[in-house]
Design goal:
Layout lengths: L1 E2 L2 E2 L9 E3 L2 E2 L7 E3 L2 E3 L2 E2 L8 E3 L2 E3 L12 E3 L2 E3 L12 E3 L2 E3 L12 E8 L12 E12 L3 E2 L8 E7 L3 E2 L12 H8 L8
Parallel strand pairs: 1-3, 2-4, 3-6, 4-7, 5-8, 6-9, 8-10, 9-11, 10-12, 11-13, 12-14, 13-14, 14-15, 15-17, 16-18
Length: about 200
C-alpha cells in the first residue's frame, strides 16, 4: 500500500494499492490494470479514452470528470462521487457501483455487459442509446427522472430499485423487469389511461 504520495500517472504499478495519493496531470492516455485506489485524487479531470481493467475505486471524487470513449472491465466503484461524470461512448463489462452518487452522469451510447448497481443514486442520469448486454441488475438504487431514450431495456432489472418517473419510449420497454408498484409509473408511457 502506497499512502499520501504525489505521483505521476506513469508511476502507477499494476497490482498495487494507493491511498490518499494525488496523481498529476499527464498528456498520455491513462491505462491502468489491477489497482486499488482509496481516497485518491486525479488532478486531471479529462481522462477520456482511458483503459481501466480490474480496478477498485473507493471514496473517490470524480464529479464532473470526463471519461468519454473509455473502457471499464471488471471495475468496482464503492462510495464514490460521480455527480455529472461523463461516461459516454464507453465499454463496460462486469463492473459495479455500490453506495455511489451518480446523479446527472452521462452513459449515453455506451455498451454495458453484466453490470450492476447497489444502493446508489442515478437521478436524472442519461442512459440514452445504451446497449445493455446480459442485463443490468440493480438493488436499492434511485433512478428517478433517468433517461433511457433509445435504449432497449430487455433484462434490465429495476424491480428492487425505485423511480417516480422514467424517460422512456414504449418500444424500448420490452423485457424490462419492474415490480407491481412501478407499473403505474410506466403505464402512461404506453398510452393507457387509468380512472
Amino acid at each position: 500500500m502506497i499512502k499520501d504520495k504525489q505521483l505521476e500517472v506513469a508511476e502507477i504499478v499494476s497490482g498495487e494499492s494507493y491511498e490518499n495519493c494525488t496523481f498529476l496531470q499527464t498528456p498520455e492516455k491513462v491505462k491502468v490494470s489491477e489497482v486499488n485506489f482509496v481516497g485518491c485524487t486525479f488532478e486531471q479531470t479529462d481522462l477520456s479514452e482511458g483503459e481501466w481493467l480490474d480496478c477498485t475505486f473507493e471514496r473517490m471524487n470524480f464529479a464532473n470528470y470526463h471519461f468519454e470513449k473509455s473502457i471499464f472491465y471488471r471495475d468496482h466503484f464503492n462510495t464514490c462521487n460521480l455527480l455529472g461524470t461523463d461516461f459516454s461512448n464507453n465499454g463496460w463489462k462486469d463492473s459495479s457501483f455500490t453506495d455511489c452518487r451518480v446523479d446527472y452522469a452521462n452513459f449515453s451510447e455506451s455498451k454495458l455487459t453484466k453490470c450492476a448497481a447497489k444502493n446508489s443514486s442515478f437521478k436524472e442520469t442519461y442512459f440514452r442509446y445504451v446497449e445493455f448486454k446480459s442485463g443490468f441488475i440493480t438493488k436499492g438504487c434511485d433512478f428517478d427522472s433517468t433517461s433511457f431514450i433509445g435504449s432497449k431495456l430487455k433484462k434490465a432489472d429495476l424491480s428492487k430499485s425505485e423511480f417516480e418517473v422514467l424517460e422512456v419510449v414504449p418500444e424500448d420497454l420490452e423485457g424490462l423487469i419492474i415490480n407491481q408498484f412501478q407499473a403505474s409509473a410506466l403505464i402512461g408511457v404506453l398510452g393507457v389511461v387509468v380512472k
